[in-house]
Amino acid sequence: MEPILFTLFGAIAVGGALLVVTRKNPMSAAISLILSLFAVAALFVLRQAHFLAAIQVIVYAGAVVVLFIFVIMLINVPENRLPVEKLTVYRLLGVVAAGLLMIEGAVASRNFSAPAAAVNEAGSVEAVGRALFTDYLLAFEVTSVLLLAAVVGATVLAKKKI
Amino acid sequence: MMEPSAYLILSGILFAIGAVGVVARKNALIILMSVELMLNGVNVAFVAVGSYLGDPTGGIFAFMVMTVAAAEAAVGLSILIAIYRLKETIDITELSVLKW
Amino acid sequence: MVGPLSNIHEYLWLILAFPLAGVVLNGIIALVAERPLLLPADDHGHDDHGHGGHGDEHGAHHETPGYRKLVAFIAPAMIFAAFVVALLSVIQLAQMPAESRTVVQTLFTWIQSGGLSVSVALQLDPLSSVMILVVTGVGFLIHVYSVGYMSHEPAFARFFFYLNLFMFSMLTLVLGSSYLLMFVGWEGVGLCSYLLIGFWYEKDSASTAGKKAFVVNRVGDFGFLLAMFLVFWNFGTLNYTDVMARIPALQHSGILTAGLATAITLLMFVGATGKSAQIPLYIWLPDAMEGPTPVSALIHAATMVTAGVYMVARSNALFMLAPFTMGTVAVIGAATAIFAASMGICQKDIKRVLAYSTVSQLGYMFLACGVGAFTAGVFHLMTHAFFKALLFLGSGSVIHAMSGEQDMMKMGSLRKHTPITFYTMFIGTLAIAGIPGLAGFFSKDEILWKAYSSSHGSPVLWAVAAVAAGTTAFYMFRLIFLTFFGASRIDKEVEKHVHESPFSMTIPLMVLAVLSICGGWIGVPAALGGLNHFEKWLEPIFEGGHKAAAVATEALSHGATAAVHGAAAHHDPMEFILMGASVAVALFGIAIAYYLYMVRPEKPAKIAEANPNLYRLVYNKYFVDELYEWLIIRRIVNGSVWLWQMFDVQFIDAMVNGVAKTVRSAGDETRKIQTGVVGNYAFSILLGAVFIVGYLIWR
């Protein structure tokens, strides 16, 4: 069962990602991003990471992308003022470099093998929550500081008069 | 039973697509979205490896990455708004005052 | 002696610590209170206001500021304290048995490197005890004198800072127990000499003279350094006591040959010629008179310039092994004595006459050392310190009275105006001329006698020295007659202000005058019924050298007994004859001076006119400066100019500029990488990631 679902959602995720980087209109790109993120959430479920799948849907697809859409609608760049993107040697080089990185990633992960105990509860809400509030408590708390800083920074930067 | 390397290769593909978006696009909004894509690709790898090893650390890392991604998106977008107000553009090639 | 001071030799370090404390205190005061003087001229007015508060509570304009009073107290007081400690130490040393009169106090280990271990240690023995008494005693008097002499000087604290620093260095030089420590002091006094000659650095001639002294001394220091290396290489130590102790063993093992001893001692002597102004490196001393007069008295007459004599005396055991060096030292000493004396005849500047006289007297000391009469050399060093310091301070008093005039042709009849200066200087002149009964007579006569009678001496050396003695008497009395007697040739304007110096200046003169009379009495030779305490006192120092020389001579002449030290043992009638002859020569010189400058004052000009070439030659100091200029300095300057234009400009500069140009054009090109576009930077990061991951995979 897993290979079929993996292929399906993997294809959706990659397809959505490709749409994100190829759309001229940012709104279409944002919708494609939601698609891709949902597919990744499904992959998380496939790996029994239910908690993260939920977070992925709520925080990423729900909050972050909605923020993107807000901004797109807020600044509302007219169609004719959107940047004109042409194929240049430099961009081609960028694509080649990214491709090389991908190949390198594939080569590096080729020999990764896992122990036989395939199905486990490592991604469950209970397991993640236990780890988060015991071993990683400090990191968890520091995260709140980071988010606070982001809130303050975003507010100050977006204010009309600084 | 899936081979774990399949997830890792998928993770690499997502990361590379995001990198292409960051390097090749001019639209600052798309670039920010591509950054999210790259982070997502990394998350796939973390979650997959964590579940194969039966270790919640991978999930924790993915969680942290998401937090950082949310913060980064908030700050990045507000910078974008400030820039758009000032320069009436979201084309990053036009924002080159810092050159030389 | 009971109590904490029961063993004063544990407190030897105080002799150095007191001047050092003076250095620190005066240095702080100079930095704090005289800061405006160090700043450029524009800032003066601004800062002077800030110093009003430092003055007296009266606030009057001509009051001495408080810090000057403090300096005027600290500087002499520190030297006096050092003198007291030195005196107590020497008294205790005298109470010890003669054979064990060597005290070494180790303070701390300074250098520990391989076979070289140098500790900072002080050595008190009869030789260094003479030196510290002379240095601190005469130094204290000159400090007191300087308080009066420099009272109008703005940079008062700086002057005493340098002077204290000199005292510290000089005491290090004489008290140090190793050649390395001597070298430290040697360089220290050289530095202070440079600083004090160029004290009035705004004056071009003063700063030039300072540089000249420094550079010429550097030539000598080089010799000293090489000698030190040789000593360490062969002896494995630089401590005096160890070097002396190892001489017999090294003689037996054949390492210490006459050749090696000659090399070491000749190099040492090169150092001595630099510091003690002997031929060929004497040229800096006359120019050093650009410094303030107390400096001339302290450094360039009484103490520093005698460092060379001290070094030779300290190394007597080595010098005695090198007959060739001894001969060289004697000949150079005698030649310098007569040569410098002849140059003093025609000088018009009162201080320059004394400078040449100093060079000449130092020549005597080296003559004494060269003929093996180290005692006589050190004895003359001491008496010379008294009377030459007296003469210099007297000349300073004259200059003070004359409002800075130094030309003797513009003086005359000063004895009415400045009686104390006149009488004290007259005593000093009698002493240097060798009039019987005064200090100079005993020491000079002993040198003359040894020059004749010693196994290293010869009648020729005696004759040269005797002629030099007559010349000395002549030019010194010329100085006295021109300055104090005859018709006044003083400018009318200056004459109004002529006055006797304050007590702070005259009292040191009087003390030194007494010393110039009595100073010689401790060394009255046996021939005149004296006990010659001085020679007995120094005997332990110098007998080592005689013994070593005896061993060497024995080795050469296969057991033949050599009478090295025996010449003065019996009363040779010749000694009285020569004594009389030298006194006669001195009186003859005085008589000529009297005839030429008192009876027929117009005569000297006529003689000069009759022999214009000779006069020009002597007046211009035999053109030695010009010869050096042409022979050495011009060559070095030309070579430097060539190096500058060829090597520096065309090679070094081109290289440096080339590097700069390359970097600049590289920067011009590479700055274009900084496009300011974020995407490009992201691309660079991506590329970097590709390379790093690739490296990690395929390494």
Highest CATH level, the class of the largest domain in chain A:
Mainly Alpha
Cα-based radius of gyration of chain A, to the nearest Å: 20 Å
% residues in beta strands of chain C: under 5%
Largest sheet of chain C: 2 strands, antiparallel
What is the alpha-carbon Rg of chain C in Å? 30 Å
**SSE order of chain C:** HHHHEEHHHHHHHHHHHHHHHHHHHHHHHH
Oligomer: heterotrimer
Mean pLDDT of chain A: 87
The percentage helix of chain A is over 70%
Spell the H/E element sequence of chain A.
HHHHHH
Total domains of chain A: 2
Distance between the first and last residues' Cα of chain C = 84 Å
Number of H- or I-type helical stretches of chain C: 28
Strand order of the largest sheet of chain C: 1-2
Question: Residue ranges of chain A: pLDDT <50 for 5 or more in a row?
Answer: none
What does this entry look like structurally?
Chain A has 162 residues and is mainly alpha-helical. Chain A has helices at 2-22, 26-46, 50-75, 89-109, 125-133, 137-158. In chain A, helix 2 (26-46) runs antiparallel to helix 3 (50-75). Chain A starts with a helix and ends with a helix. The relative contact order of chain A is 0.08. Chain B is mostly helical and 100 residues long. Chain B is elongated and about 55 Å long. Chain B starts with a helix and ends in a 13-residue tail after the last helix. The mean pLDDT of chain B is 89. Chain C has 699 residues and is mainly alpha-helical. Chain C contains 28 helices and 2 strands. Chain C has helices at 13-33, 35-38, 44-50, 66-95, 126-149, 156-175, 179-197, 204-235, 240-252, 258-275, 284-287, 293-302, 307-314, 316-319, 323-344, 350-370, 374-401, 419-433, 439-453, 459-484, 492-495, 503-518, 533-557, 573-599, 603-610, 612-619, 624-670, 678-698, and strands at residues 103-113, 116-124. The longest helix of chain C is centred in the last third of the chain and has 47 residues, at 624-670. The radius of gyration of chain C is 30 Å and the shape is globular. The N and C termini of chain C lie far apart (84 Å). Classes of the chains: A mainly alpha (162), B mainly alpha (100), C mainly alpha (699). Chains A and B meet through helix 1, helix 2, helix 3, helix 4 and helix 5 of A and helix 1, helix 2 and helix 3 of B.
